[in-house]
Design goal:
21% strand, 241 residues, six-stranded antiparallel β-sheet, two-stranded antiparallel sheet, 2 domains, 53% helix, 9 helices, alpha+beta, 8 strands
Length: 241
């Protein structure tokens, strides 16, 4: 902003260009196996960039966040096609609805509250000690195929504690995770279909589309609102935005 030059450009499937001046201040870490990356400025992470490959469409869905949690940009990369930008607020609402639907189905099927399911999902990402893993394996083998009645639950809770019991007494954890992954996968596929269809119908040229998207990204990067971003888009692509 001070020099009028671009020090860092992020694009496509984790492509990055960095000027000599940018290399003094910025660092880009990329985990190719897990499709995760971070852009650092003076040692501080400023953009978290993750992706998910959707085999059905041979496409990669990308999500960028600032400050670790704030949505910044969603876009789709499809070989041989222009990158497709997605309205992140509308998309997040679709994902939230899909996830909530899965939670409600799991709640009814396994007689759990939504709060119980949220705790189970949270525990999916928590660390479990080797001793706890051993106890869980032993108890899983001992009670495999049996109905978890109150007596068995108490024995489990006495052994590994109430919170860990909630993790153990379910293949539910795995089933819930798989179901949510499936719901997200479906939503990604639907979003890709919609975006492709809209782009074709609008008939926007490649150069215009790229310029409009770049203008929106710049507005967001400078802290602008959705309305500001749309104004920037319309100034280039008109009613196609």
């Amino acid at each position: 902003m001070l020099t009028g030059e671009t020090d860092v450009t992020l694009s496509g499937n984790f492509k990055i260009k960095m000027s000599n001046n940018g290399k003094k201040f910025f660092k880009f870490d990329y985990d190719e196996n897990n499709l995760k990356s971070n852009l650092f400025y003076k040692g501080k992470p400023i953009i978290n960039w993750t992706a998910r490959y959707v085999p059905h469409h041979q496409a990669t869905f990308h999500q960028m966040q600032v400050d670790g949690t704030q949505p910044f940009h969603y876009f789709i990369v499809i070989p041989g096609k222009n990158n497709i930008s997605i309205n992140f607020k509308l998309f997040e609402r679709k994902i939230e609805k899909a996830v909530n639907k899965v939670k409600e189905e799991m709640s009814a099927k396994y007689n759990l509250s939504l709060a119980d399911i949220d705790r189970i999902i949270e525990k999916k990402n928590s660390a479990i000690s080797k001793q706890q893993e051993k106890l869980i394996k032993e108890l899983t083998e001992k009670y495999a195929g049996k109905e978890i009645n109150e007596q068995i639950r108490q024995e489990i809770e006495k052994t590994i504690g109430e919170e860990m019991a909630n993790v153990l007494i379910s293949q539910i954890e795995q089933l819930t995770g798989q179901a949510i992954d499936s719901a997200i996968e479906n939503e990604l596929a639907n979003a890709i279909d919609d975006a492709i269809s809209n782009a074709i119908q609008e008939g926007v040229s490649e150069a215009t589309a790229i310029a409009a998207i770049e203008a929106m990204i710049l507005v967001y990067a400078l802290g602008g609102s959705d309305e500001d971003a749309m104004d920037a888009c319309r100034s280039i692509a008109g009613d196609a935005c």
